[in-house]
């Protein structure tokens, strides 16, 4: 297991980058704690896999260093980093049995045969492949082969880190849930440092101790699921985390008052006078309908009943605002105003969260 340090790390696929836009991975400075589980979360092309490949040694960064337990491994090959990596698509030895595929990393390091037998049986149970241990991998389905890849990545107990690059893409939905649970159990049992790349917020939030949200080659926030939900540090985090995501509206802010399309909102705390592009962000969970005179005037477009609650889609001067309403809540035609719970309001300037001023 290892603490992983990203020191002034950046990468460009161009030979002579000249501007920030030339970098697929913009400058990072982070310490990732030994033994924690991290999820790299973001949309396609945001730099997740680039960062993972730098950590594994498949890619050397354009600048900066990467350290394992304060040892510089920036130019060290993958074989010297003592990591296990599972890729998006299955990588197995077709001519070997499932048993031999799982045992291969241990045999390659000269492990005791009795230990190999016991450990392979444990992993086979974990991935639900005990009944197929003696079958050749060649004839198995893609999801079965990916389970073998996962198992082979998890079979070693002495690795510095376990790296997963969207490993559940080809797995059926029910098995995804089971394998996520098993990965979490494995982490609790052995305390490996785990890094899991995904574009699926459910995978990230259920797997990780800390979620690393990436956007346009940057880490825009690293935090617990609760922190990402309650205090998105960037509008992308608010938009990407949650279903539906955070409502974001253009505003002007002066002290403890915001004005949104001519409607004044009291914020309950002062934010000074932020410059740049100012926006107010409120999650649907902190938004409610009202038939009074306060709040933003809206037109309800539709109501979606999703079982546990209702999602109200409302129009505010051409911008959609989403409201989470309780399953049993009565929604009448007179409810043409939206009010915010001030505890859930965030202010943003040029997409970054503005902290309230301390009196």
Automatic annotation (TrEMBL):
<dbReference type="InterPro" id="IPR047641">
    <property type="entry name" value="ABC_transpr_MalK/UgpC-like"/>
</dbReference>
<dbReference type="InterPro" id="IPR040582">
    <property type="entry name" value="OB_MalK-like"/>
</dbReference>
<keyword id="KW-0067">ATP-binding</keyword>
<dbReference type="GO" id="GO:0055052">
    <property type="term" value="C:ATP-binding cassette (ABC) transporter complex, substrate-binding subunit-containing"/>
</dbReference>
<keyword id="KW-1003">Cell membrane</keyword>
<feature type="domain" description="ABC transporter">
    <location>
        <begin position="4"/>
        <end position="241"/>
    </location>
</feature>
<comment type="similarity">
    <text>Belongs to the ABC transporter superfamily.</text>
</comment>
<dbReference type="InterPro" id="IPR008995">
    <property type="entry name" value="Mo/tungstate-bd_C_term_dom"/>
</dbReference>
<dbReference type="InterPro" id="IPR015853">
    <property type="entry name" value="ABC_transpr_FbpC"/>
</dbReference>
<dbReference type="Pfam" id="PF00005">
    <property type="entry name" value="ABC_tran"/>
</dbReference>
<protein>
    <submittedName>
        <fullName>Carbohydrate ABC transporter ATP-binding protein, CUT1 family</fullName>
    </submittedName>
</protein>
<dbReference type="Pfam" id="PF17912">
    <property type="entry name" value="OB_MalK"/>
</dbReference>
<dbReference type="GO" id="GO:0015408">
    <property type="term" value="F:ABC-type ferric iron transporter activity"/>
</dbReference>
<dbReference type="InterPro" id="IPR003593">
    <property type="entry name" value="AAA+_ATPase"/>
</dbReference>
<keyword id="KW-0813">Transport</keyword>
<dbReference type="GO" id="GO:0005524">
    <property type="term" value="F:ATP binding"/>
</dbReference>
<dbReference type="InterPro" id="IPR012340">
    <property type="entry name" value="NA-bd_OB-fold"/>
</dbReference>
<dbReference type="InterPro" id="IPR027417">
    <property type="entry name" value="P-loop_NTPase"/>
</dbReference>
<dbReference type="GO" id="GO:0016887">
    <property type="term" value="F:ATP hydrolysis activity"/>
</dbReference>
<keyword id="KW-0472">Membrane</keyword>
<dbReference type="InterPro" id="IPR003439">
    <property type="entry name" value="ABC_transporter-like_ATP-bd"/>
</dbReference>
<keyword id="KW-0547">Nucleotide-binding</keyword>
